[in-house]
Each structure stands twice: as structure tokens, then as C-alpha cells.
């Protein structure tokens, strides 16, 4: 027979133990933890990696593919983890710069020129060789020789194979099939497409000469079309991924002499899938949006984008050149007498990335989600 004191002592000891929550309670707790983890900023991937060390339950939640899907859907646009820049001087002739301090160190690729970067991949060239590279996984795909090479009068782009029919949201396709589009001009214009699924280039397609030549700068993807910069300041080239047809589009009248860096800055506007062009008037930047195209003549609308005098240091307002603009993260890259700056148009924050000695003239942002598991 147990005394009242013994019973009380036994009850107290049992109550001091940490009982397992009911299954329903654990499910509710998991949902709360997941909602908390979803809000970790994607441009600092180290935070999620550290969260996996908290306990086994958190590691299981973060490693679950359903969390990966929700995380990408929640943040929508992949973060910029780094950029590949092309410089005229120094060891930085073509290297990877980590814009996120928690991005893993990237093997230097200074003997290759970064031509394009999209959907978690980078397209590089060295003489007549082409390679597709994933800086995070360090996977490399060597492409077979092109059917025909057009010296420097060419450009090319890498993209997810699902972009042809818009069948992919591009949140997690860096390990899937990809395409490389090559366009060249000399006495005529031709294009061909490499498919990683087929492992070969398509037959070349000859098109009407645009009476202009391509400039080797990163292209933009809008809908199912790629847009390339031409050496003149009056036109750009459109490549339709579905039909593989090439057409020429005229830029806004009166804006030809306002480009601060000598060539148009093309922008893919994510919200409404429209093509944009950044132009400047002294230190005021404008965004032109293409409304419609008829027989190569486009209708454009203009809006003010930014006033560089309020965003850049006073001693940097010399020899200003807009390099590129990334709409998904609203980042503007500007080369000045004091170096390369990134300007966040959402927060209005400016950050110096590289010194002026490098004289950067081309930037290919690398954007990708980096999630444990």
C-alpha cells in the first residue's frame, strides 16, 4: 500500500519528465517551424545550413523536397549569389565574385570568358570551345564543335530547355536539360541550337542579314524569346525559341545618343514579361518598356528609373557606365571612376563590389537557390 506522501512524490517525479507531444501537436509545431524557416533570406544560404544543426527534426524539415518547393515559391525570384565579370586589365580578366558571403568559394575560371548566365548555369567560351558550367556543383559540360564559327561577330545564350514552351518556373532546373543558342553574322546570318538531351547541335538556319553585327554581351530572355545587343545603337535582335526565327527590333527614337556606356542595357521585366531598355540623360536613368511590335517598329513607354546623384558617392560621379540591370532582384550595376557599384533600387542601398583598376565592362549575374539537402 502506498502512502499519500509516496504517491505525491511519485506524481511529482512523473510530471517533471518531458512527455512526447501528441502527434497532432507535433504536426502543428512542424508547421510553425516551417513557416519560420521559409522566411530565411535566400541571398544568405548559410542561415538555412546552420538551421539544420539545431536538431534532427529541423534538419528533416529543411531537407524535405516539399520544403524546397515551398521555399522557392515563397521567394519567387532566385537570389544573386555572385557575378562573373569581364575586365580589360589585371588578373580579373574573367572571374567569379561572391556577392553573398555565405556562397561557397568558387574555383577561378580566369582562362574562360563568361558569355551568359541563366537558370543556374554559366556559358563560357575559350577561343572556339564552349562549356556550360554550374559554379555551385562544379559540374561542367563540354559542347561539341559548332557547325560553323563566326569569329567575334556572334553571340550565344544558355537556358533551361523548358523555356521553349514556358513549361518550367526555373526555380530548380539547374540539373535538368538545357539549350545553348548560337547566332552569328558575317556575309549572312545563321543560328543553331545545342540540346543537352540530344548531345548535338541542330542544323544551321540561315536568316536575312540585319545589316548590323552582334556585340558579345549577355542576352535577356523574355517569354520564349531571346534578345541580343547589336553593335549599332538603333536595333536589337530577337530570337524566337519556338519557331527559331530571327527578327530585328528598332529601339526608341531619340534615345540612341543617351546610352552612358555605348550600348543598350536590355532588361527582362519579370512581372509582366516585357522587354525593357535602360537609357540615361546625364545622371538620370530611364526605363523604356516595349508595348507592341509591328514590322520591326516597336511602341515604347518611358518612366524614370533612378537618379544616380542620390545613390552614388559624390566622388564616383565621373565616367559613369551602366553595365546591367537585373529586374528580379532590382539590382543596377554601374561602373564609375571609383569602381563597380551595385544599387538596390528597392532599398536604395549602394554597395561597392570591385575596385576601379579592373575597368569592368561586362557582368553576368549568377542567380540560383542554394538549399541544404
From TrEMBL:
By its UniProt entry, which SUPFAM superfamilies does this protein fall under?
F-box domain (SSF81383)
Which InterPro entries does the entry mention?
AT5G49610-like_b-prop (IPR056594), F-box-like_dom_sf (IPR036047), F-box_dom (IPR001810)
Which part of the chain is the F-box protein AT5G49610-like beta-propeller domain?
Answer: 115-369
User: Residues annotated as region Disordered?
Assistant: 1-24
Pfam families per the record?
Beta-prop_AT5G49610-like, F-box-like
Taxonomically, which superkingdom?
A: Eukaryota
Location of the F-box domain = 44-71
Please note every region of biased composition (Low complexity): 7-24
PANTHER family for the chain: F-BOX DOMAIN-CONTAINING PROTEIN, OS07G0120400 PROTEIN
Full protein name:
F-box domain-containing protein
What phylogenetic lineage does the species belong to? Eukaryota, Viridiplantae, Streptophyta, Embryophyta, Tracheophyta
Amino acid at each position: 500500500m502506498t502512502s499519500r506522501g509516496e504517491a505525491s512524490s511519485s506524481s511529482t517525479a512523473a510530471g517533471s519528465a518531458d512527455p512526447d507531444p501528441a502527434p497532432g501537436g507535433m504536426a502543428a509545431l512542424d508547421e510553425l517551424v516551417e513557416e519560420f524557416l521559409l522566411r530565411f533570406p535566400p541571398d544568405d544560404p548559410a542561415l538555412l545550413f546552420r538551421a539544420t544543426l539545431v536538431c534532427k527534426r529541423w534538419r528533416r524539415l529543411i531537407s524535405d523536397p516539399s520544403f524546397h518547393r515551398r521555399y522557392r515559391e515563397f521567394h519567387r525570384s532566385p537570389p544573386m549569389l555572385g557575378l562573373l565579370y569581364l575586365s580589360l586589365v589585371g588578373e580579373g580578366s574573367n572571374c567569379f565574385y561572391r556577392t553573398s558571403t555565405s556562397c561557397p568559394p568558387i574555383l577561378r575560371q580566369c582562362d574562360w570568358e563568361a558569355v551568359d548566365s541563366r537558370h543556374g548555369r554559366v556559358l563560357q567560351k575559350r577561343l572556339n570551345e564552349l562549356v556550360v558550367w554550374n559554379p555551385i556543383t562544379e559540374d561542367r559540360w563540354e559542347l561539341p564543335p559548332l557547325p560553323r564559327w563566326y569569329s567575334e561577330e556572334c553571340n550565344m545564350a544558355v537556358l533551361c530547355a523548358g523555356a521553349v514552351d514556358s513549361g518550367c518556373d526555373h526555380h530548380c532546373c539547374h540539373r535538368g536539360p538545357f539549350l545553348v543558342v548560337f547566332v552569328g553574322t558575317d556575309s549572312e546570318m545563321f543560328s543553331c541550337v545545342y540540346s543537352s538531351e540530344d548531345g548535338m547541335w541542330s542544323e544551321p538556319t540561315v536568316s536575312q542579314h540585319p545589316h548590323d553585327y552582334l556585340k558579345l554581351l549577355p542576352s535577356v530572355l523574355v517569354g520564349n524569346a531571346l534578345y541580343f545587343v547589336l553593335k549599332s545603337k538603333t536595333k536589337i535582335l530577337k530570337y524566337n525559341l519556338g519557331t527559331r526565327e530571327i527578327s530585328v527590333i528598332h529601339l526608341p527614337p531619340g534615345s540612341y545618343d543617351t546610352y552612358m556606356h555605348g550600348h543598350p542595357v536590355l532588361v527582362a521585366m519579370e512581372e509582366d514579361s516585357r522587354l525593357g531598355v535602360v537609357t540615361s540623360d546625364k545622371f538620370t536613368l530611364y526605363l523604356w518598356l516595349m508595348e507592341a511590335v509591328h514590322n520591326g517598329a516597336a511602341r515604347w513607354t518611358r518612366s524614370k528609373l533612378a537618379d544616380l546623384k542620390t545613390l552614388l558617392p559624390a566622388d564616383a560621379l565621373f565616367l559613369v557606365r551602366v553595365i546591367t540591370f537585373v529586374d528580379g532582384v532590382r539590382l543596377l550595376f554601374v561602373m564609375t571612376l571609383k569602381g563597380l557599384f551595385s544599387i538596390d533600387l528597392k532599398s536604395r542601398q549602394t554597395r561597392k563590389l570591385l575596385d576601379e583598376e579592373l575597368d569592368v565592362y561586362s557582368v553576368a549575374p549568377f542567380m540560383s537557390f542554394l538549399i541544404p539537402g
